[in-house]
């Protein structure tokens, strides 16, 4: 199995609902976003490139690409980040991580990995999100887990569930009958930093 | 000049075989107790600063690394910069000292022990810089329990550890050789191994950066040879400073010709280093495509001060090294310091440069965990330097350097590092 | 109707499968949503799920499941609707948890410390008993001295629950007191203008969102669904994927414009003229949909020149008129006891028929009897009453609106306007998607009136895929009036628009006559932040108000300036019911968690206050949701659908408008509530939305036929443009609904601070760039904010996104500069009808 995503950029409106759902589901600490809606356009969020009225703007949501050839897995000295052979999910073992941040240097997708630079702090005094999410630890690296705790229960990642534009599709890229495989086959798509050779498992339908 | 001799400074006219051990001991004690109050004070200060560094490190760990200037988009900083730098210093020092022995050629007048000890101190610093950069240093043991042997960082841990041990063995072997207990051949073998290890150490350190295709500035095959050449520059320069200073302090005698040799070698290494730099710049600039971002960043962008200090500093140093009339001890020390500063600037360029250019330029949410200058949004983050150290980083850095200084000075005081006296 | 017979089990089943059977156009969006798992979230370990919904004024009304663990809501997930195309939630709804547990939440009643300034932030804690007693005492003293109308209960749009929201129990208290229940005045212009044509009242003009799937073109006019109502946008996007053309008309290139097939840029404030010129062109070039005009409009109705009213059985001939008058008198007598609204409804129910000129017979006949009604021409009754056909009057009225002037005012080229008009008229079915961009000007209602006329002339009404969309509201209403009228009913004075309050309080008069106004209670409202021209509230209203009570979850601007602040519960801490916006459902809210701290539901606060004021009969012990729901569902409309609290508790969601699998079309699914169910090319009886005694005698004659009027301030010809060259918009943001969600930490990470969005040219002219601090100002006020150069903004426009409170600005506040004026017909806030300038700000 090779779980991956197809994200329809024609539908994506960069609303941050997926990011917010992820943030709450995984009880992310203050200041941390595993998934971010990025603006393809101007220098600031929600601004376009070019000049009015010919300016253009679109959105890409970017989280860990769960690459087939991940740069991060190669360099982690203790194997805290590793690729699950069955599902293809690139996972992170918080207990093993020594906080060397080599993976953050290696990953070409700047910003998808986050380090807990301080004791994780929260707005509320109880854990939000799913009870099965591993607790966050100070001074280790984190990133999108593809909602592993939900996959374990036969549920899809939270970002896919909550996308209000119905732009996110997820499934087994190796299964030709899966929705995601069909979309990648039938629609034009692009991948982020395809030249890097990391073979990301996220396809942006264009 | 540095004949390999069987003793340590034994005065010949009283040669009494029976008394030799006692005299030798006395001489050793004398050597071990070198240095007056000045050295004592220096050792004390180094120790104090090292302790302060440890305290700050504990503060960093308990209060969180958020107290540093590093954040998600610039996840390495002063510590890893210094790690690179000190590996370079140490590798350079060892190469300088082991090459003559390895090739059986004339060396630099018996300074090799001092050079090796300097190198060992630098190695300790390098390892310490990695440790203080770790988020979970208590999990260091995992490096040996769960080692991912495919990781360049793992290779570096192995090689650095090996290198540290090997440096100590080399020093011991040198001492033993001087006492006639280790043969010249054996020493030569060890020195060859040490040399290879030194080259490997810095190559592997380079590969931590150079093998990452994700960072434009880092991903070049040239990086390993280039690190070695930079190591030779700063290592040689450090050795030159140390031995000239020790000569001034009366710790050892050193023929000026040897210093000149060192200086000329330094000059040559600078030429090689600048040659590599030029190759890299040209390769990045020529297509006038993606690589231009790197060139612009260095030549006129946020890293320009570091770039120009390096280039001008190196050139100035080379001029001093190659101009006979300028090869005076004071100027040589000055030029060497400039070379060391230049190489430090090179490390800064590389470290910050790797993070200064982003692969995903698109604007997105920026929080205090993303960059320190988060209030200005994503474009603001990259306008100036994406990273600058905070006070605690300077403090810990000072502490580690002080630790290295402590090792060096204590070694000078207590270890038989002086060149064998004629 | 039988679609409402869902059992709980079948509803919670895989909604995907249900959708497949009932989805609108075969194979459309049903196939577009296939998830690895389907349907609602299952409870995680240790979790209990509660059925909930979002109740803000965001056009969403999403159903949410609250996941509760150890008595705390740990997450919210979107709850499925029978039609899965309506299922969804946004970042705001999901992050509501951070509002519930926010440290900024008001925990207990607080009184402003005696002797301190309002807004100084000096509070002392009081018990509920003390607070209620004090408020009751203040109210009673006021009533004793000035009468009950010196007390105003002010609600806006903070909460649409029937029990604890703007409709809730406070109007019952106001009615017992005979106090003023101010009328909200946000977003009323759009409906007022459309009502002139469709008779759809304030809110019922839109088709169901899914109707766009049947449109050949969607014109998004003055609204930005990508940001502000993405659940609406989802349908438009699906339509786009099936080939529907999507066009956005907007003064700025909104996020929606970026996603549209075509972006039409217009100068703000003159859209009405564009529509009128287009309508004129349609008539002049014979592009009128005569089938629609003939069968579905009142174009043939005759208009009496003497009264400007239609010739009808109510006024001609004499015997018929007399009979009608008698019927009216009888109705008044019969229903007088039940109040003005009941009387009006009874009078409206008296059947009236309308006359046309039948060309076939050359005589005046009732419309249904005519064979060939005349659309144009002047005629007269046998007894000499001069008459004109309505269509002809409209045609003459429209003839003054030229393409050339439309081009000048809007900035479009004449060729383009012509081409667009021809396209518009040729389209099979056009949906015009609006919310309130067009509305927020003093000529707001004329804007939408003109568009409605254009749609009528081109036949884009009352058929699949045609009409207005964007604010689809329930066509079923519960018995809210019954909830408010008890035996102790004294009077429900609900006609004073809140926008007049600063003037009333400052002058203690209305319409030139004394009107003491001393006490105000704001609930589900934040007028200090949201009223246009904020200084009116701060400098005129506040200083002259004796006593101000605010009920809220957080210290909003209004709460800061109050004398007494009462903590309200969040939406998840109460049981409630709301009818959805932009979906055809009414959704039940289960109480998911206990009220936090000392907060109380609005209904309970009204209950306590009511009893403290002596109205135990109207607020009896044991009063609660069971009793209130029983009243709400007691009307015929509710009974027809078999609604009850029990049923809601069981089924959680009930479709209360339209039919599953179909799209509700205004004027098609149900007839227009107009004269003979026909759209009005001529408006017989134009009335102001609210009658607060204003004198409109000099305007009424001009309100029968659509006309163009310049905006008050922002128009291109306005002399104010010299001093204040930029039009001031306050675009609505995806991160807030008005001021709600304005302090949610995770949203603030995404949108940290207020910004003045300006075009690069305007910024360069003033020597500023992104991140510079700028002062945006006009004669009404100023604010200091960070500048953002944004090429979505047209030159000549400044936009400061809405919803920031005063303490979030470096100086001043963005609401100071907006337009406080209102037109007395719609009594609608006209925020964007304002001009400003900006400059670099030195500290």
TrEMBL record, chain A:
Positions of the 4Fe-4S ferredoxin-type domain: 3-22, 55-86, 88-118
Alphabetical UniProt keywords: 4Fe-4S, Iron, Iron-sulfur, Metal-binding
Signal peptide range in chain numbering: none
PROSITE patterns assigned to the protein according to its UniProt record, in alphabetical order: 4FE4S_FER_1, 4FE4S_FER_2
Keyword Metal-binding on entry: yes
Superkingdom of origin organism: Bacteria
CDD domains attached to this UniProt entry: PsrB
UniProt cross-references to SUPFAM superfamilies, sorted A to Z: 4Fe-4S ferredoxins
Keyword Transcription in record: no
Entry coiled-coil feature ranges: none
Name of protein: 4Fe-4S dicluster domain-containing protein
Native organism: Adlercreutzia faecimuris
Automatic annotation (TrEMBL), chain B:
InterPro entries tied to this protein: Electron_transfer_protein (IPR052049), NrfD-like (IPR005614)
Membrane topology type: Multi-pass membrane protein
Similarity section: Belongs to the NrfD family.
Key words of the record: Cell membrane, Membrane, Transmembrane, Transmembrane helix
Protein name per its UniProtKB record: Polysulfide reductase NrfD
Transmembrane regions: 39-59, 79-99, 111-132, 152-173, 185-209, 221-244, 265-283, 303-323, 330-352, 394-415
Cell compartments where the protein resides: Cell membrane
PANTHER family: PROTEIN NRFD (PTHR34856)
Gene: nrfD
Keyword Translocase included in the entry's annotation: no
Main location per the UniProt record: membrane
TrEMBL record, chain C:
Signal sequence interval, chain numbering: 1-36
Reported cofactor(s): Mo-bis(molybdopterin guanine dinucleotide)
Gene3D superfamilies documented for this protein: 2.40.40.20, 3.40.50.740, ADC-like domains (2.20.25.90), Dimethylsulfoxide Reductase, domain 2 (3.40.228.10), Formate dehydrogenase/DMSO reductase (3.30.2070.10)
The keyword Cell inner membrane belongs to this UniProt entry's keyword annotation: no
The UniProt record lists the keyword Repressor: no
4Fe-4S Mo/W bis-MGD-type domain ranges (all copies): 47-104
Keywords from the UniProt entry: Iron, Iron-sulfur, Metal-binding, Molybdenum, Oxidoreductase, Signal
One Pfam family named in its UniProt record: Molybdopterin
PANTHER family tied to this protein: OXIDOREDUCTASE YYAE-RELATED, TRIMETHYLAMINE-N-OXIDE REDUCTASE
Family: Belongs to the prokaryotic molybdopterin-containing oxidoreductase family.
Protein name, per record: Molybdopterin-dependent oxidoreductase
